[in-house]
């Protein structure tokens, strides 16, 4: 059976989208790109958004798709790319794939006769992305600490996808891992893998024990009251997406060392991250054709 070829349009993004474009092209697809002209040797990646939309059956927006101002996230471009322009010039009945899209944007796409699918909602995407995040977190901890991770007392807040993979990686480096989880079942799993486990309530009284605290919970779990119990020499790494899991103002007032690692896969492993998006795109298209 012949594998179908597609006309892809990639709009905005960072080096993940650059590698995504190269991967799709290598697979034999036609690819037009807008908003990556400031990437290395990226002169050909700055086509007008109208041209990219007109040439493409499938448009791929970045992760996250939009900035806080509602424009397409395009840190490697000198121009502002308005999502309204994408919707206006996209082919009616066309497909748009984007990451972390709010409900209002989905509804607007629908009003323009477009199908918008959030690829970050896909389990295969989030699991693979979690692995890249966990590896990136370990890299940061190695770079930002003056001692080996072996023997370090490390607290992982949350035991979801990222928490599970991160705890495993830290344990492999002989760190002394403690997992804080809300659910009893998650704590039981953590204990089965050899980690210490505490409840979300109990952990507050034990924060002073840890050399490193890594948060994976996408809600404010490290409040002012809890931060006051953290050792002054401890390192806190927040892996949660905006608005983060730490009271950053309180942490600053307490002179605590905080690193907020947003979009970590794109920063530490953009090629792998672009490949993850490519594989997810193919999974979506296979389902759309079924």
Structural notes for this entry:
By secondary structure, the protein is an alpha/beta fold. It has 2 domains: 7-121, 3-Layer(aba) Sandwich (Rossmann fold); 126-267, NAD(P)-binding Rossmann-like Domain (Rossmann fold, 3-Layer(aba) Sandwich), CATH 3.40.50.720. The protein contains 11 helices and 11 strands. The protein has helices at 15-26, 49-55, 83-89, 103-111, 123-144, 161-172, 184-192, 224-227, 248-253, 264-268, 270-289; strands at 7-11, 30-34, 58-60, 95-98, 115-118, 153-157, 176-181, 196-199, 212-215, 235-238, 257-260. The strands form 2 sheets. The protein has a 6-stranded parallel β-sheet. Strands 2-1-3-4-5 form a 5-stranded parallel β-sheet, sandwiched between helices. The longest helix is centred in the middle third of the chain and has 22 residues, at 123-144. The protein is elongated and about 60 Å long. The model has no long low-confidence stretch (mean pLDDT 94).
Termini distance?
Answer: 14 Å
Number of helices: 11
**Overall number of structural domains:** 2
Instruction: Give the ordered list of helices and strands.
Output: EHEHEHEHEHEHEHEEHEHEHH
Radius of gyration: 21 Å
Reading side by side through the largest sheet, how are the strands ordered? 8-7-6-9-10-11
CATH class category of the largest domain: Alpha Beta
CATH architecture of the largest domain: 3-Layer(aba) Sandwich
The share of residues in helices is: 25-40%
Overall pLDDT level: 94
Alpha-beta content class: alpha/beta
Low-confidence stretches: none
Beta content comes to 15-25%
The number of E-state strands comes to 11
Can you tell me the CATH superfamily of the largest domain?
A: NAD(P)-binding Rossmann-like Domain
Examine the coordinates and then state which fold CATH places here, giving the name of the CATH topology of the largest domain: Rossmann fold
Q: How would you sum up the major sheet? A: 6 strands, parallel
Which overall shape is indicated by the principal axes computed on the Cα atoms? elongated
